[in-house]
From TrEMBL:
InterPro entries: AhpC, AhpC/TSA, Peroxiredoxin, Peroxiredoxin_AhpC-typ, Peroxiredoxin_C, Thioredoxin-like_sf, Thioredoxin_domain. This is Alkyl hydroperoxide reductase C. It is an enzyme of class 1 (oxidoreductase). Keywords: Antioxidant, Cytoplasm, Disulfide bond, Oxidoreductase, Peroxidase, Redox-active center. Belongs to the peroxiredoxin family. AhpC/Prx1 subfamily. Its EC number is 1.11.1.26. CDD domains: PRX_Typ2cys. It comes from Shewanella inventionis. The keyword Manganese does not apply. Pfam families: 1-cysPrx_C, AhpC-TSA.
Amino acid sequence: MTQSIINSTIKPFKATAFHNGSFVEVTEQDLLGKWSVVFFYPADFTFVCPTELGDMADNYEKLQSMGVEVYSVSTDTHFTHKAWHASSETIGKITYPMIGDPTGTITRNFGVMIEEDGLALRGTFVINPEGEIKVAEIHDLGIGRSASELVRKIQAAQYVASHDGEVCPAKWQPGEATLAPSIDLVGKI
């Protein structure tokens, strides 16, 4: 990526997702008005992917209580997502939308397409209610992600969004002290 995706607005897309036993249409408009996570992974029926998607499913209720919707995305079809959901105990517990992106449009929009393979890198994007990307994290295929760390990052992003002039230091947790950057703070941390 030559230009940062942080603070950019999500690009238009239209896709079909498998969600709670049905096929539903999802567009960029569905991500507006609330916090969203777009969670890219390489492929269904693989190895690290189900561990990540299962971890996200285990944290989904917490994320929803924070006003966050989760969308997983791979270049598989929505039909493949349905088949995987029906055949895997881990994937069967997922209740967030699983978007199929067989054309790679969404994957390319977020800059995580591995062109020679037609697969997505492990990309996690946190989007604010205005449709701006506030967190972008991209991993190589062999490195799994942690949903609990994602929860902490979203908590920090939400705090910063609602507390003008404050920032969250490393490892910040809700209820802990934040910082108010000023000239008086320079060199004192």
